[in-house]
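Per your request, structure below.
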């Protein structure tokens, strides 16, 4: 009888793009400062924090990309009918792999230094760590309001928060070295920072794999979704119900909706589609939904059906 489509409004993160750009600029500046001081002083903890900052900066880039790409659809006639939304997923996977590689190198270097740690100049490391912490605090203030409205901004906020903890570890190691001369504090701090990075990298890769395998998003309860559809007047069954994710914050749904024999005119079908769209917009955050309206008995003529 026909297909219906409903689209959710674009994310509210667009209004926070300027603040994300500012936080990104600050993060990259601190990253360069920390990496430079780490090379000069030989501080592995500071280098680990720079790696942490690199991952967080990449995460902010992904948030910006998600906000930008979300405003664009596939061009008419383009083979990429969903545009370039999956680019974010591929970039996130690369980010996770790079972070794991950096962590492996940091752990290897740190373990080699535990028994014979080189002398580290505590003052420049302390200064670089303090600069990193100050910039992260500024970033948290800038993103705090947006984190309440946008998932992308919230992700960037949590990344900046995690890097602030890394800067605290750098500062603590530098203070220990200055007060006690125990230079092993530097590789110990680098191991702590690596331990903070690994779970984030693994979680990121897990989410990427889940999206690429087109698993149902965690925030969408399929049983509840099916129950909502079946509760509408005129709907007698639903099959071929699929929910997957194009990119973060963009779930997509398709379903074959069987209606009773009283639905025999286009006006009635249009009313069903309107009520289906309203139901999803009110109860489920689905970016794009497609419904195929079928009369009772049509399912028996289909060559195959997925439940």
């Amino acid at each position: 009888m026909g297909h219906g489509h409903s689209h959710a409004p674009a994310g509210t993160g667009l209004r926070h793009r300027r603040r994300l750009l500012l936080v990104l600029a600050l993060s990259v500046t601190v990253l360069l400062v920390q990496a430079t001081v780490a090379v000069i002083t030989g501080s592995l903890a500071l280098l680990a924090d720079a790696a942490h900052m690199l991952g967080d900066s990449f995460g902010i880039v992904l948030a910006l990309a998600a906000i930008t790409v979300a405003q664009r659809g596939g061009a008419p006639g383009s083979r990429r009918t969903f545009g370039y939304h999956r680019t974010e997923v591929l970039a996130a996977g690369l980010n996770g792999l790079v972070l794991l590689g950096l962590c492996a190198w940091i752990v290897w270097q740190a373990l080699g230094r535990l028994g014979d740690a080189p002398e580290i100049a505590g003052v420049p490391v302390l200064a670089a760590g303090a600069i990193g912490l100050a910039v992260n605090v500024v970033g948290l203030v800038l993103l705090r309001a947006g984190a309440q409205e946008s998932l992308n901004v919230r992700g960037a906020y949590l990344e900046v928060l995690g890097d602030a903890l890394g800067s605290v570890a750098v500062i603590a190691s530098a203070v220990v070295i200055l007060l006690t001369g125990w230079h092993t504090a530097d590789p110990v701090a680098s191991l702590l920072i690596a331990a903070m990075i690994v779970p984030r990298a693994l979680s990121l890769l897990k989410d990427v794999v889940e999206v690429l395998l087109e698993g149902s998003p965690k925030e969408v309860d399929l049983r509840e979704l099916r129950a909502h559809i079946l509760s509408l007047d005129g709907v007698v069954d639903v099959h071929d119900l699929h929910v997957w994710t194009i990119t973060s914050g963009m779930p997509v749904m398709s379903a074959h909706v069987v209606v009773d024999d009283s639905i025999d005119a286009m006006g009635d079908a249009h009313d069903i589609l309107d009520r289906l769209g309203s139901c999803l917009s009110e109860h489920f955050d689905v970016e794009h939904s497609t419904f195929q309206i079928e009369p009772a008995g049509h399912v028996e003529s289909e060559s195959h059906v997925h439940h």
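Confidence is low (pLDDT under 50) at residues 1-13.

Regards,
D.
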